[in-house]
Design brief:
The protein is of the alpha+beta class and about 270 residues long. It has one domain: Ribonuclease Z/Hydroxyacylglutathione hydrolase-like (Metallo-beta-lactamase, Chain A, 4-Layer Sandwich), CATH 3.60.15.10. The protein has 10 helices and 17 strands. It has a 7-stranded mixed beta sheet, with no helix packed on it. A 6-stranded mixed beta sheet has the order 10-11-12-13-15-16, covered by helices on one side. Strands 3-4 form a two-stranded antiparallel sheet. β3 and β4 form a beta hairpin. α8 crosses α10. It is globular. The relative contact order is 0.11.
């Protein structure tokens, strides 16, 4: 299923697989000035192509290489072999051979699906990607993944944050995330004079700096609580239960790939095992 919302000159696509009538774990893509910023998941790729059948697509920018953000790359590039895709240098080999470099856990197959190969050019931090009417500055924002970027359009003051900004208060973390890098990246983009934020895992927001700083402040405060409890002798399980409550459904669904324990360990800069 795809839900489309217009925000001035930016079109937002919220995409989700329908499983027995239930739609969970939405992902998001954007269309602006004939460019796609991310392309959703593989399960919704053909539906997205049908929506874009009469739409000219000049290029794709991927905020990172997770399967729920690159799912229609293959199909769009197959439709137009000259279609240019841009991504972080570390994303390139994953996009070219996703099954080899990004094997999926069972829950990821179910919710988002295995993506096909696509071919991209790397961009560097601070570089500009020019569309017909806009210029998007590439900002390296590691944490959610090591290859994560945000995009900033300085004239319109738009900020596209991918999965860097997630609404709510985090109580768990997936493998591969670095919570201190997330905080640093949130603080970095909060300093931009943006007026509207287009996230992938939350609703569009005005006054981004306020929301970004609130999120960073919450994560910093939580991290200090984790460190204080650890210093007082509490173990990881005790900290997780005390600060984040009892077992979560997502821990069961992901078979331990996304847990409270991983969040605590990331704060402690310890291995997940």
């Amino acid at each position: 299923m795809i839900r489309t919302t217009q925000y001035g000159k930016v079109t937002r696509f919220d995409l989700s697989r329908d499983i027995y009538g239930i739609r969970r774990y939405w992902t998001t893509a954007y269309l602006v000035d004939n460019w796609m910023i991310d392309t959703g998941c593989a399960h919704t790729a053909r539906e997205l192509l049908r929506l874009l059948a009469d739409q000219k697509i000049d290029g794709i920018i991927n905020t990172h290489s997770h399967e729920d953000h690159i799912g229609a790359n293959f199909h769009l590039q197959q439709r137009n072999p000259d279609l240019q895709i841009y991504a972080h240098p570390a994303s390139i080999k994953i996009l070219e051979s996703p099954e080899e470099y990004q094997p999926l856990h069972p829950y990821r197959h179910i919710f988002w699906g295995q993506v096909g190969s696509s071919f991209a050019k790397p961009f560097e931090a601070g570089s500009l990607i020019a569309t017909e009417n806009y210029r998007f500055r590439v900002i390296y924002t590691p944490g959610h993944t090591s290859d994560h970027v945000c995009l900033y359009e300085p004239d319109e003051k738009w900020l596209f944050t991918g999965d860097l900004y997630v609404g709510g208060k985090d109580r768990a973390l997936r493998a591969g995330c670095d919570i201190w890098q997330v905080i640093e990246s949130l603080e970095k983009v909060a300093d931009l004079p943006a007026v509207r934020m287009f996230p992938s895992s939350a609703r569009v927001r005005e006054n981004p700096a306020k929301h970004l700083r609130e999120k960073a402040d919450y994560l910093v405060l939580t991290g200090q609580e984790v460190l204080d409890m650890h210093q007082e002798g509490a173990n990881v399980q005790q900290i997780a239960r005390s600060l984040f409550g009892g077992p979560m459904l997502i821990e069961l669904i992901t078979l331990g790939h996304f847990t409270r324990r991983r969040l605590v360990l990331s704060y402690l800069n310890q291995n997940y095992d």
